[in-house]
Amino acid sequence: MLLPATAGAASDPAAGDPMANARYVGEKRCGECHDTERELFGHTQHAKAFRSNPRDDVERTVCEACHGPGSLHVANSNDKSRIIGFSKDWGTPVSVQNAKCLGCHSGEQRIHWPGSVHATNRLACSDCHNPMARFTASGLLKKASITETCQTCHQQQRAEFRKRSHMPVPEGKMSCEDCHNPHGSSAKRLLKAESVNELCYTCHAEKRGPFLWEHAPVRENCANCHLPHGSNQDKLLAQARPVLCQNCHSGQGGMGHQLFAANTLPTNLIGLAVPATNATAGSRRTISRSCQNCHTQVHGSNHPSGARLQR
Fold this sequence. Notes:
Blueprint: H1 27-31, H2 35-41, H3 45-52, H4 57-60, H5 64-67, H6 71-75, H7 94-102, H8 117-120, H9 146-151, H10 155-160, E1 165-166, H11 196-201, E2 213-214, H12 216-220, E3 230-231, H13 243-246, H14 267-270, E4 300-301
């Protein structure tokens, strides 16, 4: 069945649209050339929806519901302007590709897509999704998992997840989407909460408080002390203790400014030749958990005597 071109033309004919006079030819005609795509597509949610429960005559054409009317493409398959393609080498503008996808997949978690960092960097839906084949359990992603799909571009984060201490993303216990919304967010860095702390509290509720004795950098931002993806220090810390603590606690008259004296550090930490009697000497403030050997409640304390976060 042939439908009028105006039922699914990609843009205004008056603007010189090369598909303005195209007609729908139907899924069977497309499958005569694209036999591999026809077989893979049959396992997707799109195929089931368009074949079993189409909402209108355009969706009933199946392939052309997304690619546009194909009569001109059939007549001249070498002219890429005659059909909408969803790949970088085809040449269809990203705005046209995404408009087709967002025609159905708008709102909900994609409400912030316009203006998002992915949208402004001209990322196409098809850069992350493969609507023609089912390689994943959900989402029709281009890779086997959400994490692998994200790490195609985010190589720095891929390296961080391989560090000694890391979020359990490589183990499959988490994915990037647990913290970020790739389709856009009202928060920075596509976070799924209004702040870093609010996001961390969704899992680490015991750190939320309120506490009788607060630790200011903790309340301000968890990222003051922790790296979100991975670190070579314990507990995702940005630096080793006591160096991390000394970023703030280094004033004269307290404990911090004394930590790095040669007579307080173990020999293996400073690489200095010292008398044998002092070979294993070292302040308890510089070994093991360092400052936290005493200040155990570093995230905050509710003990009446916990002003120094010691209990």
